[in-house]
Amino acid sequence: MPEKKKIIANEIIELDQVSSTNDYAYQLALDGKQEGCVVVATEQTTGKGRLGRKWDSPAYLGLWFSIILRPTAQAPAATLYPFFASVAIVKTIQKLFSLTPDVKWPNDLLINQKKFCGILTEAAFERQQIKFLILGIGINTNQTPADFLPEMRAVSTSIRQEIGEWVNNQMFLQQLLTQLDSYYSIVLKQGFAPIINLWKSFCRSLGQTIALKQPETTMKGIFHNLDQDGSLILRQENGQLVKILSGDLDYLKK
Ligand code: BT5
After folding, report:
1. CA-CA-CA-CA dihedral for 82, 111, 24, 146, to nearest 10
2. Rounded distance, CA 168 to CA 102, Å?
3. According to CATH, where is 3.30.930.10 located in the chain?
4. 209-251 has which fold?
5. Ligand 1: residues within 6 Å at CB?
6. How far is the CA of 61 from the centre of ligand 1 (A)?
7. Model's pTM, two decimal places?
8. What is the pLDDT of residues 71-122, one digit of tens each?
């Protein structure tokens, strides 16, 4: 059997310091850089979250990287890509550290209900098709509580904080890129159905009472299902099912 050709991490660009690996990768993609190229930085000075929020990315204490993808897919499919990344991250952490993080819709990973990873997808479109996607992944590996801003300490964590050992970023990144490549080839061959099923198996808020914050409203209900297009189906108190495309999820006590 010929060896499978690797897509993700066919090239790795390592930077000491950058504003945002997403911005750097986006510019490379505009200039024609091939699918699979990874940009990783020791430190980001203005790491980005969703909706203009900031992502704290101090030197050596985490993995901050972005992947250029060029799938042949319609524009709405862009929201599905963080799910394959989440699954690959969970699988890597299970293998290396024998613990299973919780996935939080749409793009967070938690350990003991604290966030240690966020994913930011940015896309360029052409005639309703995806031209390229930048999949940005931030993982807190080695922060101690003192490394987080006081207001973030109660809700943020790092892998080191949870396992009690320093994480070797280089080794972790290598393993993670291999998993990301495997799950991306599943997406290319089988679509997102197996990814959605795996993601649901790691999601502890599925079936639980949640609040969904959107810029204008907050909705409460039961997290009924994750749809095949990555949207969240919320069952409201009156029994009605509502499809939610974006928002921030909060766990609620029943
Ligand atoms: C995210 O946004 O969680 C997406 C984060 C993506 C970061 C990666 S790093 C590589 C690539 N390059 C970039 O510039 N970005 C990507 P969101 O769901 O909007 O969450 C942002 C919120 O998370 C902030 O408003 C803070 O409350 C919190 N936060 C910021 N930094 C954090 C950190 N290091 N650990 C945990 N929580 C953090």
Report:
1. 160
2. 22
3. 11-201
4. SH3 type barrels. (2.30.30)
5. 20-22, 44, 47-51, 53-57, 64-66, 107-108, 115, 118-120, 136-138, 140, 152, 156
6. 14
7. 0.97
8. 999 999 999 999 999 999 999 999 999 999 999 999 999 999 999 999 999 9
